[in-house]
Amino acid sequence: MSEPCRLCGSTLSEPVSERDRHGGALRSIVCMGCGSVTNDPIPSDEELAAFYRSDYRVSYKGTAQPRMRQVWRNFGRMEQHLKANAGFYAGRSACLDLGSGSGEFMFMARTLGIGCVGIEPNQPYADYSREVLGLDVATQTLEETSFDAGSFDLIRLSHVMEHMRDPVRSLAVLRGWLADRGILYIEVPNILFDAAHKRRGAIFHYGHIFNFSPWTFRAAARRAGFEELPASFQRYGTTTSGFFAKGQAAEPGDVKSPANGERVRDALARHHVRMLPEPDNGSAIARGVRSVGARLSKIVAARRFSSPRQIADHFAARLERVG
Ligand SMILES: [Zn+2]
Fold first, then answer.
1. Distance 250 CA to ligand 1 centre (A)
2. Which residues surround ligand 1, an ion (CB under 5 A)?
3. What is the pTM assigned to this prediction?
4. Fewest CB atoms less than 10 Å from the CB: which of 54, 56, 82, 174?
5. Which residues contact 208 (CB under 8 A, 6 or more apart)?
6. Does domain 13-322 have CATH number 3.30.1130.10?
């Protein structure tokens, strides 16, 4: 017996997986009222804190420094994102980057005149952001954080909301910190893309409590009192993302979509019977050649620099020249 869906209030759900991406036990269900896919049960705050403490020990032994080609790739993606969404970022001055990760947005935003505060619970990422990139990042969680009402005209959550055990509650907190004319940017992995393209079983993860589709991602924002601005970048790709302004909070009944529930359930059922990813993009060999090529070009590009900070400075200078 599952608790009511935190987005649409429905108690109708179906199991979609009993395993995590490493083969460990993890039960996931889809809400047939709206299509949200969550861990079942949703872990408590205490269970999550314990998970991240042990995950931290396993996953981050020693080296906090990201690899050069990773740095190159991340800054390249951020440059693309900033160019594609320049209209949204123009004129912003005070940003909260919640889950600032390895700091690419904050570093580049400085060039655009946007002052940023970062919140990053992952110690190695936070240390790297402070020490290598010189950014204002606090090592803490959202629950440990507090700001005055209306402190920011931009709040960003990139690959963060899927980790929240109660996204509507957390977004409502952020809404209070956002100025009335402020905007919110959210980006999350898209489970419909993962179901179609990932290796069988390689989707679910204890730390990803909500697995969003384009509909449920927007439903969470609407429930917390946000409405989507038009012309957002990359709505329906590997991730789904959007820019939002303050609006009226939607009721649970407003975000119901049994059609999306069936769509997500069926996509996951197809995912589980498939042996190999669907060839969407030419043959497997051509994809392999392309991916090796892309990887080599990143290594070659990154070789021109001797430190992550030099790569960061290179991208920031290029952004400044474009203006
Ligand atoms: Zn639901």
1. 13
2. 5, 7-8, 10, 31, 33-34, 36
3. 0.89
4. 54
5. 39, 162, 163, 189
6. no
